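[READ THE FOLD]
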Amino acid sequence: MRPYLLIFFFLVSILSHGQEIAISDCLKIIRLSDSIYMHSCKNNNGLIYFKDGEAIIVSTPDSDHETQKLIDWVQSKYKIVAYVIDRWHPDAMGGLRQVQSNNIKSYSYEGTRFLAKEKNLPIPEFGFDNKLEIQIGNAKVVCHFLGEAHTSDGIVVWFPEERILFGGNEIRNLEGWVGNIADANLSEWSETVRKIKAEYGDAEIIVPGHGSPGGQKLIDYTIELYDFNKNQKSRFAYQVKDLIVLDIIDGFKFIATESKKVQKEVHYKNGLVFFYGKGQSIEIIADLYSYDLKKRTLYVPSGFLKIDSHNRSECFHFNELHMGLRDDEVEYTIVIKEVTEL
């Protein structure tokens, strides 16, 4: 029997479907099928495909350290012939530099390569325009860009022999929040996922970028989650001329009727928040909101959000918004629990 088959049968024997093994305190490996395994660290998911003595990995952990541990684990079994990067965010390509230092071929959508260059990040070695097939043994892996969603460059990765689809952050975990929309195209998200469903509606297992794998319900849930009115009219009627508090902190402009400092937070009542970044103009209107001076995070229990970008405007009511500044290329995140339509 060939050595790689012995290794594969050993792998299968120690890890049955759904079981997990710990590669580090953070990094876990979960078996999804005889040939495909999910890697997860800090709830950030990726996939490993073992086939005919070769391996392909999709998505990196968010650090060089954990990425190297993943590479070492896979290389102890099979030769890695390709590393697929599914989007530009650190939870998908934060370990790309380590991939490259191991002389592993890396692939991504051309949009990801463009953004990586623009943001002075490591650049995946090979790019593709819309669709790429990578050969692995006697099988293939399909990398496919179907439109903007969580980011402008996110792709899905299809394993036809296994009927498994890696949805990345295009697909939300079941019952998950609306999530981080700071780089999202909310106007296109549902339509992009409809295209994914039309193309890969026979996928039996779908792996989201975060959370647990599932079936087609994940796709349907994602379509419904972002299929809301993005041109709502605000129920708030605050006028700037009526507001007396003006604070400018960390790039945020706070205008309100009242403010009160409580330890490391500033609490505001009745007003607006303005922020500019990533080519966006962000406006939030709410009855109550607070800013954590140490963590540089804004919390709004409920309110109205308007995001103006260079090519679109999206505005809607929400419940629970967390906006946080970051020191990396992401700059900031805007995490929303749910959208409400009044």
Notes: Residues 240-340 form one domain. The chain has two domains: 3-226, 240-340. Residues 1-14 have pLDDT under 50 and may be disordered.
